[in-house]
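[stage:ingest] chain + small molecule (iron/sulfur cluster)
[stage:ingest] validated
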Amino acid sequence: MTNNSVSFYFHIPFCAKKCDYCAFFSLAKQSEELKQRYFEALLRQIDFFPTDRKVKTVYFGGGTPPLLGVHRLCKLIEAINGRFVLSDECEITVEVNPGTVDFDALCKLRSAGANRLSIGVQSANDRVLMSIGRIHTFEQARECIENARKAGFENISADLIFALPSQSDEEFAKGLEMIMSTEIDHLSIYSLQLEEGTPLFARKNELCFPDEDSEERQYDTICATLAANGFEHYEVSSFAKPNYRSKHNLNYWSRGEYFGFGAGAHSYCFGKRFCAPNDVEAYIQNSRTSLLAPTDFDDAPFVSETEAEEERIMLGLRTADGAIIPEASFDNAKRIAALGYGSFENGVLRLNGKGFRVSNSIIANILI
Ligand code: SF4
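[stage:predict] done
[stage:export] tokens:
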């Protein structure tokens, strides 16, 4: 499936240090020389991408994108602007970690054209932040948000992890109020996943993790607090003030095409889903040959009509807009709505916060 617009994702796999829970593809403390070569490889890949598609969103994720060097991020935005037609309201997001960007760096990103920040706040409790190996305090997160506003960012998102160890429900609720006081426009939430092979997994017996009931209560606290602060729960893990939904993520959930630049980046483009290996050196080498050389593109099959239909339902049910349900699943959809997990009208099932919490089981029920 192709159309005339596309989103771009840039994977910047560099971090100041690995957080104790992190199983993402990112590398700590890499040299300036490697960052420069990675940057040049990204520029080459940009030059390979066909220019006949309008770019509707750009997202720099990681990792910690500013650690590529803010001057290099700005040059990547410049290169994208120089080569492609961007849609009028193109959303350009940069993920940042508190403590890795100062006011000057934020001003440079804003001047280059970045118009949205996603800030890894994660918790308002310094003891908890330290226990999971984050490099910053909550005060630094607050300062980052304030600096971003002063630098001209009018669209600021924060990430929050719940079900973290050694934190009571009351402390969690208080921390959430502190995050709300920073007046962000969007919040993405994740429950902590203990991934084998991470330092946190190795320490799991020394830490006190919340039980399922406590995790449920924290989730309910998030839904109630965000609603009271004027946020809409518009996707399983996303809350936004009116007009601040993430356009980039909405593109994923509506099956719009996107291309991932960089090592470890995923794509859904040219009718296929494919990804580049988690190998920076291989990526740099292969980026000399073609746009798709460092990916499994050739082996990836085209997404079939049946897969596309399943994806449409699965991704649609992740969002508040819901999905049109096949007639064979109408009875299940009515039962799901009657149990209070959402609404079912005119063939469209829309989940609510309670439904989002168990969306995986609901999706399995619908895709019979
Ligand atoms: S900043 Fe993000 S990507 Fe980097 S180590 Fe921490 S969780 Fe992983």
